[in-house]
Amino acid sequence: MTEGEIIDTLIRAERVSKVYSPGLPDQVRAVDDVSLTVRTGGVAVLKGPSGSGKTSLLSLIACMGRPTEGRIVVGGKDVSKLPERFLTRIRRETFGFIFQQLNLIRDLSALENVLLPLYPVPMPFSEMRRRAEAVLASLGLAHKSRSKLTQLSGGEQQRVAIARALIHEPAVIVADEPTAHLDRALATELLDILQELNRKGKTILIATHDPLVHEHPFVEQIFQMRDGRIEDGSES
Amino acid sequence: MIKSKIFLAATLLELVLLAGFLVHSRRVEKSTESLRTSQTAELVSVLQLTDLSIWTEARYTRHPSQADFFSAFQDFPAALEHFPAGSVVSPPTHLWLEESTETTTAPE
Amino acid sequence: MLRHFKILEFALSSLLRRRYKNLGILVVYAFTISVLASILFLTDSLKQEVSRVLEGVPELIVQRTMAGRHELTPIQYADTIRALPGVGEVRPRYWGYYYDPLTKANYTLMGLSSDQPELQQLEGRLPTASGECAIGPGVAEVVPAALGDEIFLIDSRNTGRSFEVVGVFRQPSNLLTNDLVTLTVEDVIDFFGLPGDHATDLAVQVFNDNEVGTVAAKIKQVFPEARPIARSELRRTYDALFSWRSGMMLTIFTAAIVAFAILAWDKATGISAAERLEIGILKAVGWDTSDVLELKFWEGLVISVTAFLVGVLAALVHVFFFGAPILARVMKGWSVVFPEFRLSPHVSLYQIFLLAFLTVVPYVFSTVIPSWKAAITDPETVTR
To answer: pTM (2 decimals)?
Structure first.
């Protein structure tokens, strides 16, 4: 890698492996010796069937867990061995995660769901509210901010999940199978939002087996995964 | 942040009420204590009382300090308690406690 | 500081989201605490009354027993006892129990000599002549009778006797006088058919408190069938009565503890899948372990502190403003004559703190600990 390339790299995984339930009968090597880099402002896709380790790798990169072997470098910092407090901070400030199941809290309103990540930070409540409402407005949900989640459509809930991921103004948006429960129209709408975010400078990382996603023109890198390994990492 | 404000205000109010009661009770106690004590002492010494007049169901509940073995077991030795207050009132300590006058009497 | 307030705010929102469940817990919890606190306050106040009473009680009461049963005491014991060194006055006491078939109540009949001073807690006067009586407020209520009225009692010869009420003890003295009917000594002896040379027991004055044991031992030596009861034993009896190990405290205490244990068990046996998911989501969006634990801490603290304060305040009102009517009903048993509790407010700070500690700490623990495992787990499990 050239110096320019090193500076430009936001995410780097070096020979990362993840073993769940080590030493137990149900031991699983979900990620096996994976290395990849993603540049700042890039759009990368982890492609593969279910069970290929894409979700696990995504979680590791987004600092949701620590790798069993290898290291992950984010913005020049090795996050693999960081104490929990620092890892949490990096996760919170650098990554906005959109889950496959959305993982919104059902009894809360759209606004309350979006506010969730801001509670632990030293920001006054009024400022939290202002930010959350602004993000929801940018996604066309200003009029639905007080609605309970159960009153929102699937697509609207998806946008609430995106808003929550954006609230900290993270550098990286991470999405795990974002189109899994969406119809084609909504899936296209989602990809448009992600493309727009990328245009604003955000790095996008998506795990998917949906061709609608990995064949989208804004995707720069595709990492084909199978059985926890990268079979083929190519620039598109 | 209104919920936390309401909660803290309500808790503070409750604490103030509790503190207020404590202060008030100390004050009342101080002012009435000597009067109550003197009036009680007067009654007790003139009437030669030994027990509070609370449970009037049975002899051993009315005068717990004066009770003998028989009154509680008046039906037969292993009689079950049938007065509700009897299960609340414990027998006088001198009947069962080791350091009573009876057992610590020094033989001359 | 701001962070703590925000997490508290979120905790309150969480509690309100399951408002009926949490309200139920709060009510049950507050009720349990108010019962416990009521008992503590009541018994503590009664203990205070007892210690006041014991100031004036005779140093020794000498009873006579036969086959373990209380028997009348010959009056000539008094002469012998009076001659013992350290002994002052020895007064025979004449008293007994009377069952009134009309009211189905038990009274304590006491005989008093005529030369008695005026009593502040007596409206009217003590009986000085035959056919007169002074009654306690409980008797006055149950008969019913007032100053100037007559009460009818049936003596040991099955003859109806009427006594004019010349005195009624005032309500504030009810803990001592509630069921009393005082007559002259002659009337009591005649009423019960007591043999002329016997009294119920003897009240013995001992000048030096330290010599009470010695005097008691001497009395036992001279009269083997006598049972002397010292003032200190009276105190111990009532201490035991009102201590937490006695029947009253223990019964209700145990019930309350069991109720509370069920509550804590329900919480402590683990959190639901929904709660676990919620903690996972919080961690995934950037809450760290200490934030999550603080959230659970606030949830536990809000419920337990509120329940404690509401419970204690309710108990104070119940005991000191209303005279503990609910507890009284439980305690009353079959007593027809039972005093209305009018206790001077007395609360020990130590008890309040102890109660607070015992109620708040376990509940907070039982809220935080089950969430511990979920709180320390890496959020990636949420994504799996």
So the answer is: 0.83
- Asked whether residue C231 is domain-assigned, the answer is no
Asked whether the beta carbons of C44 and B29 are under 8 A apart, the reply is: no
Burial C156-190 (b: 16+ CB within 10 A, else e): eeeeebebebbbbbebbbbbbbbbbbbbbbebbbb
Confidence band, pLDDT 50/70/90 cuts, at residue C245:
low
By CB neighbour count within 10 A (0-12 exposed, 13-18 middle, 19+ buried), where does C314 fall? middle
* Same-domain check for residues C248 and C341: yes
Residue A177 to residue A181: CA distance in whole angstroms: 9
Write out the two tokens for B30.
């101080």
Domain limits, chain A: 3-235
CB C383 to CB A59 under 8 A? yes
Residues C113 and C41 in one domain: no
Q: What is the CATH number of domain A3-235?
A: 3.40.50.300
Asked if residues C364 and C296 have their Cβ atoms less than 8 Å apart, the reply is: no
Residues C247 and C377 in one domain: yes
Identify the domain containing residue C95 by its residue range.
Answer: 73-199
Can you tell me the mean pLDDT for B15-20?
94
- In this structure, the answer to whether residues C131 and C43 fall within a common structural domain is no
Q: Give residue C268's pLDDT band: very low, low, confident or very high (50, 70, 90).
A: low
Q: Domain limits of chain B?
A: 1-49, 50-108
pLDDT band at A1 (very low <50, low <70, confident <90, very high): low
Closest residue, chain B, to C337 (C-alpha): B56
One domain for residues C249 and C369: yes
Which stretch, A53-62, B55-64, B79-88, has highest mean pLDDT? A53-62
The mean of the pLDDT values for chain C is 88
Amino acid at A166: L
- Helix then strand count (H, E) for chain B reads 4, 0
- Chains that contact B by 3+ CB pairs under 8 Å? C
Confidence at residue B103, expressed as pLDDT on a 0 to 100 scale = 36
**Cβ separation A122–C283 shorter than 8 A:** no
Residue type, C239: D
User: What dihedral angle (degrees, nearest 10) is formed by the CA atoms of A128, A134, A137, A142?
Assistant: 40
Q: What is the mean pLDDT of residues B95-105?
A: 52
Smallest Cβ distance to A84: which of C9, C284, C289? C289
Q: Which residue, C166, C199, C232, sits at the end of a domain?
A: C199
Distance CA C35, CA C63 (A): 39
Closest CB to B14: pick one of C175, C218, C309.
C309
Of C112, C213, C238, the CB nearest to B101: C213
Angle at B71 between CA B65 and CA B77, to 5 degrees: 125
Q: Using the beta-carbon criterion (under 8 Å), do C91 and B40 form an inter-chain contact? A: no
| Token pair recorded at residue A15 | 């020979």
How far is the C-alpha of C91 from the C-alpha of C128, rounded, in Å? 18
Ramachandran category for residue C282: left, alpha or beta (phi over 0 → left; psi -120 to 50 → alpha) = alpha
3-state secondary structure C190-225: HHHCCCCCEECEEEEEECCHHHHHHHHHHHHHHCCC
Interchain contact, C233 vs B65, CB within 8 Å: yes
Q: How many domains does chain C have?
A: 2
Q: Indicate whether C65 belongs to any domain.
A: no
| Residue B85 to residue B61: CA distance in whole angstroms | 7
- What ipTM is given for this predicted complex? 0.88
- Cβ-based contacts of C282 with chain A (< 8 Å): 116
C208 domain-assigned: no
- Alpha-carbon gap: A182 to the closest alpha carbon of chain C (Å): 18
**Which residue reads 């019964």 in tokens?**
C251
